[in-house]
Amino acid sequence: MGGVEIIIQVGTYITLLDLIFGIIWILVSFEPASVSLTFLAAIVLVLITSEEFKNEIEFG
Length: 60
Known about the structure:
Elements: H1 2-28, H2 32-49, H3 51-59
Helix pairs in contact: 1-2
């Protein structure tokens, strides 16, 4: 299961970067698209880092 854990870690870091750039985008130019994409990145980050998600992926 080492491969799945690595993929989840990489996905977590990519989503975190997306969230950071989304926050910067909101600060630079406040647009509805920037707010919605940042909100979606935050939701995905919470889901990816939850223990329920990790258990679901681990046990199928």
